[in-house]
Design brief:
The complex is a heterodimer.
Chain A lengths: L3 E4 L3 H10 L3 E8 L2 E6 L10 E6 L2 E6 L16 H4 L3 E9 L5 E5 L7 E6 L1 H15 L6 H8 L1 E6 L10 H4 L11 E6 L2 E6 L2 H8 L4 E2 L2 H16 L11 H5 L5 H9 L5 H5 L6 E7 L5 E8 L9 E2 L2 E2 L4 H20 L9 H4 L7 H9 L6
Parallel strand pairs in A: 2-8, 8-9, 9-10
Antiparallel strand pairs in A: 1-11, 1-12, 2-3, 4-5, 6-7, 6-14, 10-11, 13-14, 15-16
Chain B lengths: L5 E6 L5 H7 L3 H9 L1 E5 L11 E7 L5 H12 L1 E7 H6 L11 H8 L23 E3 L6 H13 L10 H7 L5 H5 L15 H4 L16 H10 L4 H8 L9 H13 L1
Parallel strand pairs in B: 1-2, 1-3, 3-4, 4-5
The chains are: A alpha+beta, B alpha/beta.
Chain lengths: ~375, ~260
């Protein structure tokens, strides 16, 4: 497929084309000290020259004089909140005057949504969420409705953060699958590549000139440099056996002393999918809503079964998270659940580093 | 009227803010008044402290010798006793006197200290009588109060929220104030229920809902030190509105000792 060139001013044309095609657009913006997704109508709303400095437990934005819009790695959100809603009502029950109970469907038709700025790690995570929510025995209709209407404009990552390790998990920094359009950012514009029929239809309306060899080389060089600049890594082998061979490793206790079991890591993790459900009844009992919301293996309720909390302390909860994410995920989904985005490292209030913990537990002598 | 459940709202040492949560319920207050008889609620009008009720809501901490007697009587006349707010549930802000010589404070503050008949401590209701349900917060959350009434009157065990504020903060897609700005946010050890109100308005949680389940206060205190807080400042984070609740009591006390050394 041919790669076109879109001058920077043409970014607004891309947005207008998507809006004209009926998409609601959201894109990265600088808010509350972070890059977050918000409604996007004008290219000027995008961050300009923003660099994210990420470290364990720390995230800071610096604004440089670069004219580029995507000189950052990521913010706390991936694509997850737009498909797997943090909270939603799955059905409503109503008591009628004749004392019968009626169940009311709450699945609304979802409007087409275009997300600008997804990264390769986000696309890899999306692939895993699709597996979980769509490809099992019981596909989730809420996720499916939104997924069907999702249009993704990915951007190859040229500025990974210190917390990134997608090169070691094989998920980035180049966006290679799962996008409708992929952009490679240059100082004066973007290389544009379509990845789907929907994407090609939008690109066709942009009247792009062909990318030059020099432009292609420049984007390729920056992606390669982005991979090389990453200093963290997860061992590339399947860690399943090593983790389950070390269930009594002293490291679990050590990490539990620091871990707040606050669930920030699982909330920002683009692949974590755990949720809880409950019923919110009206005061008079005339109706109730069955609500699903994000849960975490770090909460007490997550392992509560018939009067017993199976994982009553942090040591067991952290071990559950890591052995599932990097271990038994292989059994369920054929790969590790980590895509190397580094969010769990930066957004952990006490800066626990998954690569460090996995490295410590899987290296050296066994503690089974 | 007689077949409607009876509800009482009692006040002990407190600011009345939790009682105002009842009065501020809007349409729900009208629905509530149709469902129940509010037989004792001084701030709203009805006075009948000795009436037998299905649910007694208790605001405030036990702070005077008279309180000690009155709470026993309330317990005897109530089917369910529900504490509302940080004072009734953890002793409140006034429990800070538990760490000092309260008598000294009284004589330093009042011109005629002989008129003050306070206990030397401020303690939660559960330290004196059996409490069926504790609702945290300063003030309590209206949604939680309504849910408690609904559940108790329907004969089901009330939902019990005890996760960390962080869970709610992330569901609300708020940006973490500790990670982006280094603020000493108490969210990672504080019980949810407020809807992550403070972090959503870019300020750090000050733990008015008290400790969450499995709260690692020591680790968070160490993190605050890493952010540059002196031991006294760390102690103040834990010894504030819910200083009477473990493990905040202990973690704050340890930092205060370090500060005094």
């Amino acid at each position: 497929m041919e790669t076109g060139f879109l001058p920077r001013a043409g970014l607004q044309t891309l947005l207008d084309t998507l809006l004209d095609a009926g998409y609601r657009c959201i894109g990265p913006q600088l808010r509350d000290g972070a890059i977050v997704y918000d409604a996007l109508a004008h290219a000027e709303q995008l961050p300009r020259g923003a660099r994210d400095h990420q470290a364990p437990g720390s995230y800071r934005i610096e604004t440089t004089d670069s004219s580029r819009h995507f000189t950052w790695a990521n913010g706390p959100q991936a694509l997850k909140p737009f498909l797997f809603a943090p909270r939603e009502t799955l059905w409503r029950a109503e008591r009628r005057d004749d004392h019968t109970i009626h169940f009311v469907e709450t699945l609304n038709t979802s409007t087409p949504l275009a997300v600008i700025g997804a990264r390769a790690c986000d696309l890899a995570a999306l692939r895993l969420q699709d597996q979980h929510f769509l490809e099992g025995l019981n596909a989730d209709p809420f996720y499916r409705a939104r997924r069907k209407n999702l249009f993704i404009v990915a951007v190859h990552c040229s500025h990974p953060a210190d917390t990134c390790f997608c090169a070691s998990t094989g998920d980035g920094p180049r966006a290679e699958q799962g996008f409708d359009i992929a952009l490679g950012e240059l100082d004066d514009g973007y290389l544009v590549q379509s990845g789907s029929d929907h994407g090609a239809a939008i690109v066709a309306k942009l009247n792009l000139s062909s990318a030059t060899e020099a432009q292609l080389n420049q984007v390729g060089k920056e992606i390669e440099a982005a991979a090389k600049s990453q200093t963290r890594n997860l061992p590339s082998r399947n860690l399943r056996e090593a983790l389950f061979a070390n269930l009594s490793h002293p490291r679990w206790e050590q990490v539990a002393e620091r871990c707040l079991s606050c669930g920030n890591c699982t909330s920002v993790c683009p692949t974590c999918f755990c949720h809880s459900e409950r019923d919110d009844a009206a005061l008079g009992g005339e109706n109730s809503e069955h609500v699903r919301e994000w849960d975490s293996c770090f909460t007490q309720g997550h392992s509560y079964i018939h009067g017993v909390t199976l994982r009553d302390d942090t040591h067991k909860r952290y071990r559950q998270w890591l052995t599932h994410k990097l271990g038994s995920w292989h059994d369920q989904y054929g790969r590790s659940g980590c895509v190397g985005c580094g969010r769990c490292i930066a957004w952990c209030p006490v800066g626990i580093d998954i690569t460090e913990e996995a490295g410590a537990i899987c290296a050296g002598e066994r503690h089974d | 009227m007689a077949d409607k459940p009876g509800i009482a709202v009692h006040k002990f040492a407190s600011c009345d803010g939790c009682q105002l949560t009842f009065l501020d319920m809007g349409d729900d207050l009208l629905a509530l008044s149709r469902m129940v008889d509010i037989v004792h609620f001084v701030e709203a009008g009805p006075v009948n402290p000795e009436a037998e009720v299905d649910i007694a809501f208790v605001e405030g901490s036990i702070s005077t010798p008279d309180d000690l007697q009155r709470i026993q009587s309330i317990r005897e006349h109530s089917r369910f006793l529900v504490t509302i707010g940080a004072c009734a549930t953890a002793g409140g802000l006034q429990a800070l006197r538990n760490f000092v010589d309260a008598g000294e404070w009284v004589s330093a503050i009042y011109a005629k200290p002989e008129y003050i008949h306070s206990l030397s401590t401020s303690t939660p209701i559960a330290a004196h009588v059996k409490v069926d349900l504790e609702l945290w917060g300063c003030p309590v959350d209206r949604r939680q109060v309504l849910a408690a009434i609904r559940d108790l009157l329907s004969g089901v065990i009330p939902a019990f929220e005890q996760d960390k504020v962080c869970m709610e903060c992330k569901r609300e897609q708020a940006v973490c104030v500790m990670v982006t700005r280094g603020l000493p946010c108490m969210g990672p050890v504080t019980r949810t229920g407020c809807g992550a109100l403070c972090p959503r308005f870019e300020r750090d949680c000050y733990a008015c809902f008290g400790p969450s389940e499995n709260a690692n206060a020591e680790s968070l205190a160490r993190r605050f030190e890493g952010l540059g807080l002196m031991p006294e400042a760390v102690a103040r984070r834990f010894h504030f509105i819910t200083s009477g609740a473990p493990p905040f009591t202990e973690t704050g006390a340890r930092r205060r000792e370090q500060s005094d050394e």
